[in-house]
Design goal:
- The chain has helices spanning 44-65, 85-102, 111-117, 167-177, 184-192, 215-231, 235-266, 281-294, 310-322, and strands at 4-9, 15-21, 24-31, 75-81, 106-110, 122-123, 135-140, 145-150, 156-161, 270-274, 297-299.
- By secondary structure, it is an alpha/beta fold.
- It has two domains: 4-126 and 305-322, Nucleotidyltransferase, domain 5 (2-Layer Sandwich); 135-302, ATPase, nucleotide binding domain (Nucleotidyltransferase, domain 5, 2-Layer Sandwich).
- It has a six-stranded mixed β-sheet, with helices on both faces. A five-stranded mixed β-sheet has the order 9-8-7-10-11, with helices on both faces.
- The longest helix is centred in the C-terminal third of the chain and has 32 residues, at 235-266.
- The two termini are 39 Å apart.
Length: 339
């Protein structure tokens, strides 16, 4: 009997629903929110309101594109956390009501785990290469920077993580300081392709072990810009491509330095990339360069699976469904992971 999993993602400002059949993706619908651009960041209250407007049509469209009926669904998988509480509550509440109405199981999904397991999504026309266990994954997004040891679909060990800002958060804030708009990541990425990555030097943190820190880089960037602008009011406009390229190169170098150390210590050469910042071309290129230099086998996701999407939630739900790892209706959403 075929297994159909509905995945629902609402952890931040994208409302998404996807259908997976026996591990193969049938549909993946994402409704983005442009309302936050004028505020320079996601406004939680506006995000939750938009989710309320989008959730029903998005789920309906996902089922329609999958060419199935809701009665064929085997289970509903939903992002339970971490994320913005108001946004999560919309997705969690809808999933509970939908599953109860159909009398099918519910599966709660960790948003970060889902990003990693996006590598196991099978497209209908392509059976892509998947990382073997154990493998390392560099998860980089606006809210998280982690090196994760994946020993199985459900065994996830965080080896290193940021102790302050995440890489994506630092890039967004630096973009805002430059007056480039929101979201900053794609803008910095585009400008960096035209600039010299060695034009400027910014401070790199010296953190023991495998953890990251990006607050010092952000401070160094701000003070450097203030100094340069004081000397030349048009400095940013004249040098924005070189500034972007140098910033991106510094962030990538910080990320890859720790990842190399972990790969060497754990003697693992199967390395995956995940999270929103994995769409960054500089980081992707660094992965391919490391594959040649260090004989790594690297796994870089499709651009459509880098940002928040329900396909990754559905595939995670599929694996949990096979283990009959269901949740009860009383489980609440959570905004952050606590140890």
């Amino acid at each position: 009997m075929d297994t159909y999993i509905l995945g629902i993602e609402s952890s931040c400002d994208d409302t998404s629903a996807a259908i997976i059949k026996n591990g193969v993706l049938l549909s993946n619908v994402v409704a983005s929110q442009s309302v936050h651009e004028s505020y320079g960041g996601v406004v939680p209250e506006l995000a939750s309101r938009a989710h309320q407007q989008n959730i029903v049509p998005v789920v309906n469209e996902a089922i329609k594109r999958a060419n199935i009926t809701k009665e064929q669904l085997s289970a509903v998988a939903f992002t339970r956390g971490p994320g913005l509480m108001g946004s999560l509550l919309v997705g969690v509440s809808f999933a509970k009501g939908f599953a109860r109405a159909l009398n099918i199981p519910m599966i709660d999904v960790n948003h970060l785990n889902a990003h990693v397991l996006a590598h196991f999504i099978k497209d209908e026309d392509v059976d892509k290469q998947q990382p073997p266990f154990p493998f390392l994954c560099l998860l980089v997004s606006g809210g998280n920077s982690q090196i994760i040891l994946m020993e199985s679909y459900k065994e996830m060990k965080i080896v290193g993580q940021t102790i302050d800002d995440a890489a994506g958060e630092a890039i967004d804030k630096c973009s805002k300081v430059m007056g480039l708009g929101y979201p900053g990541g794609p803008i910095i990425d585009r400008l960096a392709r035209q600039g010299n990555p060695k034009a400027f030097t910014f401070n790199k943190p010296h953190i023991a072990g495998y953890n990251y820190s990006f607050s010092g880089l952000k401070t160094s960037f701000l003070y450097s810009l203030r100094k340069w602008v004081a000397e030349d009011a048009d400095f940013i406009e004249k040098n924005k491509t070189d500034i972007a390229a140098s910033l991106e190169a510094t962030v990538v170098e910080i990320l890859m330095d720790k990842l190399r150390k972990v790969a060497k210590a754990y003697k693992i050469n199967h390395i995956a990339l995940a999270g929103g910042v994995s769409a960054n071309n500089g980081l992707r290129n660094a992965f391919y360069e490391h594959a040649k230099k260090y004989k790594w086998t690297v796994y870089v996701p499709k651009f459509s699976y880098t940002t928040d999407n329900a396909a990754m939630v559905a595939i995670t739900g599929y694996f949990k469904y096979l283990d009959k790892d269901f949740c009860t209706i009383d489980l609440p959403a959570y905004s952050r992971v606590t140890n």
